[in-house]
Write the structure tokens for this entry.
Amino acid sequence: MNIILLGPPGAGKGTQARILEDERGMVQLSTGDMLREARTSGTEMGQKVAAIMDAGQLVTDEIVIGLIEEKLQSTEGNGFIFDGFPRTLPQADALGELLKANGQGLNAVVAMQVDDEALVARITARSTCGNCGEVYNDQTKPQPANGKCSNCGASDFRRRADDNEESLKTRLMEYYKKTSPLLGYYYAKGDLRTVDGLGEIDAVKAEISGVLG
Ligand code: AMP
């Protein structure tokens, strides 16, 4: 099964993708994670996109489509969860073609709905484990008092450079201008399933299971 998790920054796509990986053996393909990895490893492309990412703007379609193409060719798994990709109509077209070329398709596009006020609150409270990517939230899921990640035991908590109010405004604007048209695109294709992304992690998980079957 191949699915897209679609929603604004802070909707909880990464958290739910990790749950789907654990429970269904699916593979999360996050272009945000791939780009952050390229930055850390200091590749030319990573250096080129760093300022764009920190400002909250979208990097070019060409770069992210290239990253996804490479991963699709090199990754095996029980289906893919596309997280943060596609974010534009040309990316959506490209994904359809890449999957088709591999004899595959999309089974569902899960739209995660969260209101804007909640997104700002979530994102400014967010941190992750630098080792395994476990996501924490200062209010709802604080970092463990012993300073060690509850998933892997590492002590390397990080906040993303773009998780601040200024960059978030740009990220939200990019979402509404360039990504939200994908809701109509996938609705018209008959792939869209909408879930309420505002609830507790387990409630959202149950809703997603309900629409995926
Ligand atoms: P994310 O981790 O999905 O929030 O992505 C972090 C940042 O990486 C975004 O704000 C963009 O600058 C960039 N990015 C990630 N995925 C894409 C994409 N599909 N298209 C363009 N830019 C992306």
Notes: The chain has a mean pLDDT of 94.
